[in-house]
Specification:
Shape: elongated
Structural class: alpha+beta
Order of helices and strands: HHEEEHEHEEHHEHEEEE
CATH class of the largest domain: Alpha Beta
Number of helices: 7
Low-confidence stretches: 231-254
Radius of gyration: 23 Å
Strand content: 25-35%
Number of domains: 2
Length: 254
């Protein structure tokens, strides 16, 4: 099994059972776990194949380059587009600027070990990054560039994550079939000065990523755990109602 390469089929459950001298039930349970973890892919009517392992994406404020290096992978990027544009109403709200503010719009393909992982489109006020060129961003962390050239240190950010599928452009850039499952990340970051720096919209390949979050109880000022049962009113309804949302949001600080 360890000698198999990505894309190769593994032996049948019956063959593995004979080779390893264990029951097929045990083999099936082990394979199920490998499929859940993203190491194997079952294809109906064809077999089970070795896949690229998924990258665990922690919900923290780190750059893509830093995250890949920590995993022993070589980060890379290709700048597909760099242009200036007016903020308009939607981006003005995101970046807390005037709709007439000039922004730099950058579209990049993010790579890990030369494999496409994500496509991102970022917007940043032009006044913050004078002279920025496509070459400045090739195979370089944008956050490192902000610190080293412009003296901008990212202090915090707000990020939302939701499931999606790739459109035609995203599929072509990432080299995946149309409507491939993916994660949509939208992030707004703030500098130490308190100024909103950037708004980034990223599409991450769903077949190469899984999200990981460390959860701890959140206590209110009175010491109670948030979400604990509250007093009931006369009709038996809770005094506060939880609202279910499709989008998962979090605020991060490094």
């Amino acid at each position: 099994m360890e000698s198999l390469e990505v894309g190769q089929a593994i032996p049948s459950e019956r063959q593995l059972s004979q080779d390893l001298a264990v029951s097929r039930l045990t083999i099936r349970a082990a394979l199920d776990e490998l499929v859940r973890d993203g190491y194997l892919d079952r294809r109906h009517g064809s077999g089970t194949y070795v896949t690229e392992p998924k990258i665990a994406q922690p919900l923290t404020l780190t750059s893509f380059s830093e995250d890949m290096r920590r995993r022993g992978m070589v980060p890379g990027s290709r700048t597909l587009e760099l242009a200036t544009t007016l903020a308009g109403a939607r981006l003005a709200r995101r970046l807390q600027v005037s709709p007439a503010e000039r922004l730099v719009r950058v579209k990049r393909l993010r790579l890990a070990d030369a494999q496409p992982m994500a496509m991102e489109v970022l917007h940043i006020p032009e006044v913050l990054v004078p002279g920025l060129t496509k070459a400045d961003l090739e195979n370089r962390s944008f956050y490192d560039l902000l610190v080293e050239r412009y003296g901008i240190v990212i202090a915090s950010g707000t990020q939302s994550i939701e499931p999606t599928v790739t459109n035609e452009e995203e599929s072509e850039v990432l080299g995946v079939p149309l409507h491939t499952p993916a994660f949509l990340f939208e992030r707004t970051t703030v500098a130490e000065s308190g100024r909103t720096v950037e708004f980034v919209r990223s599409i991450y390949r769903g077949d190469r990523y899984r999200l990981v979050a460390e959860l701890t109880p959140q206590r209110s000022r009175n010491g109670r755990v948030a979400g604990a049962p509250r007093a009931q009113n006369r009709t038996g309804e809770s005094a506060s109602r939880a609202t279910a949302v499709r989008r998962s949001s979090a605020t991060f600080k490094p």
